[in-house]
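Hi U.,

Before I forget, here's the chain from the pilot set. I'm dumping it here mostly so it's searchable later in email.
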Amino acid sequence: MHNEAAALPDRPAADRPAKDLAKDQAKDQAKPRRGALAWLDDNIEPVFMNIAYVAMVAIVFEQVVLRFVFKTQIAWSTSVAIYMFIWLTWLGASYNVKTRSHLAFSEIRTRLPYSGQFACLILDAVLWVSFAVVVIYYTSEQVVILHENFAIVPGTSDLMQWWFYLISPIGWSLIIFRALQNLWKDVRAYRRGEPFNLGSLSLDQ
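Structure:
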């Protein structure tokens, strides 16, 4: 029976011997995630997302109070709030790729055979990376143009726009990293015959 299972790498984890699966899972759990790199891997997007979100909410709240109570406003606040939303958007996109919480038609994928699921995950990575390369190319050009023209944030004298727009190529570079990171995990799962992480089904139900 064991020889037959070993000869069929296309079999899901449910058909593999429980003892083998337990050994593999124990190996993964035995490796502690410590150190600065592990912390960054777990928290880089959430930390900066929270900073951007708090800054955006604080600026909008301050603007509402100044307008309706004191009948005045800060000239740069509207622009900076929008920039914070851009940061929140691209960092959130990277985090969603990492956690696979984006729309992925998971209900359909779970009905596919094991190899079909793996093919979809490979396609995910190819599409993410391909699209990200295009976005990085054009948004980097935008950052360079803003830098060369010394474009400043309206209402300020020395706050440069390219500082904020830099998040576009950075955020999409993170998306590439997360897509390849997930692909590496999927390849490992496929080699072990383990079930794939197909993301949440909540958006598909």
